[in-house]
From TrEMBL:
Record's protein name: Helix-turn-helix domain-containing protein
Recorded GO MF terms: DNA binding
Helix-turn-helix domain ranges (all copies): 40-89
Matches recorded under NCBIfam families: excise
InterPro entries: HTH_17, SinI_DNA-bd
Organism listed in the record: Flavobacterium caseinilyticum
Signal peptide annotation: none
Length: 107
């Protein structure tokens, strides 16, 4: 790295300031993601998130088809668990199946 001249210091300070602002925003965004991981939902909020009726959610809870937390007579859901549950039902595309077959045949 080359030494800076006195005239270049203001420009360099602006660049450093811009980079610090970017890093601060990135840290805030990451911390918000972590907070959402532990977000607790009641049945009405889970119903809205999943776009299912409350009675359907109760049915899935009784059949143990959906991740749930019980405290007394109340049930709660973690947003990240519901999102993971939704993703677990993903159907692979034809292309993904072909790639899996090719990977297995190489082993």
């Amino acid at each position: 790295m080359k030494p800076f001249t006195f005239d270049q210091i203001p420009v360099m300070m602006n660049k450093i300031h811009d980079k610090l602002e970017y890093l601060e925003k990135l840290i805030v965004r990451i911390s918000n993601v972590e907070e959402n991981k532990e977000e607790l939902l009641n049945i009405q909020e889970a119903s809205k998130l999943l776009n299912l009726s409350v009675s359907t959610i109760y049915s899935k809870v009784c059949k143990r088809e959906i991740p749930v937390n019980k405290q007394g007579k109340r049930i709660y859901f973690y947003r990240h668990e519901l999102m993971k549950w939704i993703k677990s039902g993903r159907v692979k595309t034809y292309f993904e199946i072909q790639n899996d077959i090719e990977k297995r045949s190489k082993i």
